[in-house]
């Protein structure tokens, strides 16, 4: 059975074979251009100032061809294809980053929980500037990934660029990244579920985490599902997580190039929580599979969504092995996915029911158009196909002020407040003292600070 993988920078199918795809370009013109490609390779081989490695040259050409389509289509050399399979199985060696290409740069979609990168303070949206002192500009995702990988215990020096901050230079020691996709704990009367990625073990781990919380807190009154900085993973895992909280109905659909290319995925009877109140936490590092879950639970009014608008990656990529993986694979965009209401998330994202920034700095990122990191920022991103656009720069509804304890997680605090209100936002208590509250829809100038107002009820 094929497995679809949605990883922020790619959504992948493991297995399958290449299918014949008809081109709109006349066949004779296609052959002429292929001959041209061969001519260019021959000229480079004979005339370039130093000898060239034809294999690397052709791999670079393949990578360029794929990335010209959209940010998430790419060519995976054999080593990167092997790495992909390791990651979906929940264990690999590296520094723990989900990355994607953007205008000749490689950006971080999200650092993985407890990984070397996360411990070093790497954040979503950071640009990889240099690796071991060598400029990373112009490198492909595959090339950067290859440089970041290595034997366990070895180190790699990486410089990251961040909007509004000095360059961050860190030395990351590679580890075996054993991805525990779900962790859980009791928070007062409620259960807290952190899903860091979606892999083969996520459905089982979610059930185990909920069972553990129920055993520790038999009278648990609701749950927070934290999908912040979760860059994606297996589609099947996203369906399993959504299904765990739904009794019925469509979870997600994906629609391809032709009208008949539609696949729908629906929930089976049985809500693992028995219908207890549920809040989903998202931010602009929540991508792909995370957005499937948040979108399904929001559309079915099963959960309130709290945080910031998600990344907006609503395209599906199919990974097609080349010669059974011996020559790597192609990851190519084959469909968009849609929430149960028929909304496309592509370039738009999931908007929260209660918009809350984790800090004033995060609120400023949302309020400044040049700093917003999302799918919509990619020049070559697919459109949403429904005529809608992502919400522009604006001041988030709530953000902690200077007096708020920076060691506390304000977004989580407000999620718990929603649970205390039984999931009903109309009964939500006022934001605590020291919180910046703005009128809904407040849109500042691009460089404006979040506007302050007196705390008040929703």
Count of the domains: 2
Please report the total strand number as a whole number. Answer: 24
Number of H- or I-type helical stretches? 10
Largest sheet data:
6 strands, mixed
CATH homologous superfamily annotation of the largest domain: 2-enoyl-CoA Hydratase, Chain A, domain 1
How much beta, percentage-wise? Answer: 25-35%
Uncertain regions: pLDDT < 50 for 5+ in a row? 1-23, 441-458
Question: Quick one: CATH class of the largest domain?
Answer: Alpha Beta
**Rg estimate, integer Å:** 23 Å
Average pLDDT reading? 85
Helix content, binned percent: 10-25%
Q: Identify the overall geometry.
A: globular
What's the CATH architecture name of the largest domain?
A: Alpha-Beta Complex
Helix vs. strand class:
alpha+beta
Query: Termini distance?
Result: 47 Å
Neighbour order of strands in the largest sheet: 12-13-14-18-19-22
Summed up:
The protein has 458 residues and is of the alpha+beta class. The protein has ten helices and 24 strands.
Describe the structure.
There is one protein chain. The chain has 458 residues and is of the alpha+beta class. The protein has 2 domains: 91-178, PDZ domain (Pdz3 Domain); 182-437, Alpha-Beta Complex (2-enoyl-CoA Hydratase, Chain A, domain 1). Helices cover 25% and strands 25% of the residues. The chain has helices at residues 27-47, 54-67, 78-88, 116-119, 141-148, 202-216, 235-245, 289-299, 360-367, 410-420; strands at 3-6, 11-14, 74-76, 91-94, 97-102, 105-111, 127-131, 134-135, 155-161, 168-173, 175-178, 182-187, 190-195, 223-226, 233-234, 250-255, 262-266, 278-282, 304-307, 315-321, 329-338, 354-355, 398-400, 435-437. A 6-stranded mixed sheet has the order 12-13-14-18-19-22, sandwiched between helices. Strands 3, 16, 17, 20 and 21 form a 5-stranded antiparallel sheet that branches. It is globular, with a radius of gyration of 23 Å. Residues 1-23 and 441-458 have low confidence and may be disordered.
């Amino acid at each position: 059975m094929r497995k679809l993988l949605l990883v922020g920078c790619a959504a992948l199918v493991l297995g399958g074979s290449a299918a014949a795809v008809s081109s709109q370009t006349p066949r004779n013109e296609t052959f002429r251009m292929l001959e041209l490609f061969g001519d260019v390779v021959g000229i480079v081989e004979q005339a370039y100032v130093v000898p060239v490695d034809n294999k690397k040259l052709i791999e670079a050409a393949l990578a360029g061809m794929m990335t010209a389509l959209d940010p998430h289509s790419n060519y995976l050399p054999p080593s990167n294809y092997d790495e992909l399979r390791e990651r979906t199985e929940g264990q690999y060696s590296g520094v723990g980053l989900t990355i994607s290409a953007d205008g000749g740069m490689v950006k971080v979609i999200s650092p993985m929980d407890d990984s070397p990168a996360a411990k070093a303070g790497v954040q979503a949206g950071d640009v990889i500037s240099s690796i071991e002192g060598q400029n990373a500009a112009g490198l492909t995702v595959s090339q950067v990934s290859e440089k970041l990988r290595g034997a366990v215990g070895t180190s790699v020096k990486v410089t990251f660029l961040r909007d509004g901050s000095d360059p961050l230079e860190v030395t990351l020691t590679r580890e075996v990244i054993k991805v525990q996709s779900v962790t859980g704990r009791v928070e007062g009367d409620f259960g807290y579920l952190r899903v860091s990625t979606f892999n083969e073990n996520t459905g089982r781990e979610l059930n185990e985490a909920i069972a553990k919380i129920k055993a520790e807190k038999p009278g648990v009154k609701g749950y927070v599902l934290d999908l912040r900085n979760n860059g994606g993973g297996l589609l099947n895992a996203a369906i399993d997580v959504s299904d765990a909280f739904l009794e019925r109905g469509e979870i997600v659909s994906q629609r391809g190039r032709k009208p008949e290319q539609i696949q729908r995925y629906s929930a089976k009877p049985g809500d693992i929580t028995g219908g207890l109140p549920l809040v989903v936490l998202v931010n602009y590092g929540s991508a792909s599979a995370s957005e499937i879950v948040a979108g399904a639970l929001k559309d079915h009014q099963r959960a309130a969504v709290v945080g910031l608008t998600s990344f907006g990656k609503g395209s599906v990529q199919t990974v097609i092995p080349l010669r059974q993986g011996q020559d790597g694979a192609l990851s190519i965009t084959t469909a968009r996915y849609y929430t149960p209401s028929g909304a496309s998330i592509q370039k738009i994202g999931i908007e929260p029911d209660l918009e809350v920034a984790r800090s004033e700095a995060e609120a400023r990122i949302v309020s400044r158009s040049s700093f917003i990191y999302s799918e919509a920022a990619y020049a070559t991103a697919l459109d949403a196909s429904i005529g809608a656009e992502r919400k522009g720069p604006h001041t988030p509804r709530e953000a902690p002020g200077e007096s708020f304890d920076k060691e506390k997680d304000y977004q989580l605090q407000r999620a718990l407040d929603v649970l205390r209100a039984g999931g009903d936002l109309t009964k939500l208590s006022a934001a605590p003292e020291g919180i910046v509250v703005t009128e809904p829809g407040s849109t500042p100038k691009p460089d404006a600070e979040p506007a302050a107002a007196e705390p008040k009820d929703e």
